[in-house]
Amino acid sequence: ACTTDVCDATQGCLNVDNTSNCNDGNACTTGDVCKTGVCKGSALNCDDGIPCTDDSCVVGKGCVHPFNSNGCNDGNLCTTGDTCSSGACLGTNISCDDQNLCTDDSCDPTSGCVYVPSVTACSDGNACTTDNCTNGNTCTWTENIAPCNDGNACTTADTCSHKVCVGAQLNCDDKNPCTSDACDPTTGCVYSFISAVCDDGNKCTASDTCIGGVCAGNTVNCSDGNACTTDACVKATGCYTTNADGIPCSDGSACTSADTCAAGTCIGTPLNCDDGNVCTSDSCDNITGCAHGNVNAACNDSSVCTTGDFCVGGACTGNPISCDDGNPCSVDTCDPVGGCKHTVSPNGTSCGTNLACFLGSCGPFPTYVLTITKNQSCPTTHPLVTLADGSKLCAPDYPAWGIRQASPNTYLVDSGDGTVTDKNTYLTWQKADSGAAKTYTNATLYCQNLNLNGLTDWRLPTVAELLTLRDQTAFNPAIGTPFLSGTAASGYWTAVQNIDFANYWLVDFKEGQTSVDLPSAAYRARCVRSPFTTPNVPGARWGTDTSKGWVLDNVTGRNWQLAGQSNINYLTGATALCAGLALDGGGWRLPGILELESLVDRRLAAPTLPAVFTGTSDSFFTSDVFANSPSKFWSVRFADGVTLALYNSSNASVRCVR
Fold this sequence. Notes:
Elements: E1 3-8, E2 12-17, E3 29-35, E4 38-43, E5 56-58, E6 62-64, E7 79-85, E8 88-93, E9 103-108, E10 112-117, E11 129-134, E12 138-143, E13 155-161, E14 164-169, E15 179-184, E16 188-193, E17 205-211, E18 214-219, E19 229-234, E20 238-243, E21 256-262, E22 265-270, E23 280-285, E24 289-294, E25 306-312, E26 315-320, E27 330-335, E28 339-344, E29 350-352, E30 355-358, E31 361-364, E32 370-372, E33 384-386, E34 392-394, E35 412-414, E36 419-422, E37 428-430, H1 440-448, H2 463-467, E38 491-497, E39 504-508, E40 514-517, E41 528-529, E42 550-552, E43 559-561, E44 565-569, H3 570-579, H4 593-597, E45 619-625, E46 632-637, E47 642-647, E48 651-654
Antiparallel strand pairs: 1-2, 3-4, 5-6, 7-8, 9-10, 11-12, 13-14, 15-16, 17-18, 19-20, 21-22, 23-24, 25-26, 27-28, 29-30, 30-31, 32-34, 33-34, 35-36, 36-37, 37-41, 38-39, 39-40, 42-43, 44-48, 45-46, 46-47
C-alpha cells in the first residue's frame, strides 16, 4: 500500500514510494503513514488518568487497564488510609469528636474537622427556660416569660411563668342563638346546632326558627292587592307602600280603555262605542263591552253610485245607478266619489261584426297589415316582406287607408306615454326612434324585441306607412310635429325589399325623399304597430272600365289618366296641361306627392306602375313645392319608385288626376 505501481513502456513495472495513510496492523500504534515504502505509526498513549489501574498496550488488543490495590489519595480530608479497590480510591472516615458539649462537630472534605459553638447542646426541651453552655462543658437553664404553647386548644395567650406555660381560658361564645357552645382541649371551640325559636332581627320575616345553625323566618307578604301601589319591605321597619302613578292597569270594566294608575287608584277613559255606522245603535256593557244593535232607517252610504239607500242587516245599502253611456267603445264604471266614468276601450277592441274601436269610436275594421307564419302566402293585394325571424309580413305598400291632403299634424295624437297614434291610418308609432343607427337585420330585431307600455307586437313599417309621417311642407326634419325632437335628419329603414332583392327601402326625413340601400348599411328605425289582430284585406284596387282613358282607384277614390305625357316643362305646361285636359268631361289637375306616390308598386321592375297604366319610367311632376327650395317641385321617378325634387325649369312627364 506504500508504493504506487505503474508500468512504463520503456522501463517496465515501476514501484514508487508514496506517503499515503495506511494500517500497520498493530493496535498499539496510531496515525499510521507510509514512509520510504513502509507503513509506520506512533506509539499509542494508554494512560486513562486513573491511579487505581495499571495502563499498558497488548499487540492485537490495544490498551488494557487492570485494577490494582496500590495506596492512593481520594482528595477528601475527612478520610484516612486511602487504598485502591475495584478501580476506585477509597478511605476510612476520620472522627472529629472534640469531647466538648458546647460545640457541634462536623467535617468539611476540603478543610477537615469543623467545630461550631452549639445552641441545642444544652436544650432541656422546656420552652420556658433559656439554655446556655458555660466554660465549654457546663449547661445552665434560666426561666423566662416568653410566649409559649401549653398544648391546650381551650386556652389563649399562653405565656411562660416560673418555667411553666400558662394560658387564659378561651371564650367560645359565637353570639349565635342557634348553637350550643363548648370547648375541646384538642380541637378548641365546638358549636352544635340546636332547634329553637329565635329572632333574626328582620321585620320582613315572621315565625323565625333555628334551622341548620341559622335563625331564619318566612318572608312577610306585603302585597295590599292594589295594582296601583308598589309594595316593599325594609328590615328595620317592615312593609310599606307607594303610589305607582302612570302605569297601565285594569279597572275591571270593559267600558273603559287606556286604564292608568292615578293617586293609587286605577282610572280608565270611557270607551267610545260609536262604530260610525248609522245602521246600528251603540251601547256598552261593563262585562262584554260595546254592543251594536241593527236599526231600520234611511241612510247615506256616501257613494254617488247608489240611490234609495236604506239600513239592512246593519249595513247601509243602495241600488246601483246605471252608468251605461251607450258607447260600445268605452268601459263604463262608477267611482263612489266621482260617479260614472267612461274609459276609452283599447284600440282594436271588437264592437260588432267587422267593427272595431279606435280612439273611443266604433267603426269599420281598418286593418291593413297581417303577419303570417313561414311558408304561407300573402293576399294578392299585399306584397310579401320576410322578417328577420323567418315569418312574413303581408302589408299593402300603398295608402290603403286613403290619401290625406292636410298636414300629418291634423291626424297625429301624442298619447303622452311614448307613443303617437294616427287617426287616419289607425297605426300606433314609437315616438322616439332607435337612437343609434343599425343594420337592416338589427333594426328588424330591435322592433320585434321592443316592449313599450307592455306592448310587444312592434315591427318595421312599410314605405307607404312611414311616408304618412312625412310633412312635405317642412324641412330638416320633414316630419310631423310630435316627432320633431326625436328624429334625425337621415334615412330610416322600412320592411320593404327592393325588386333587386339586394337593397331595402328607406325614407329620409331630412327632406322626405325615398331611396334604397344595402342591408349592411346603418340607419335608424322607428317602430309601428297596428292595434288590430284580424286582417281586413281590401278587394281589387283598380276598376275594370278603362274605355274612357282613365281608371278608378277603388281604395283612394281617385280617377287617374291612363297615359301620361312626357317631356313637359313645369313652368310652361305641367299645371296648364292637366287643367285644360278635356278627357271625359275635364276636372283634371296635377296630383300632389302623396297621390302620385300611391301609384308606385315596388313589387315591379321599371316601370314601377301597375299594369293598368301605360307610359314610361320617366320622372313625373307633382303640384307640391319642395320645402327647402321654392324653385323645386316634388316628383316620382317610376324607373325605380324613388321620390325626388326637380327644378321648375326642368322637363318631365305628367299624369293627371281628378
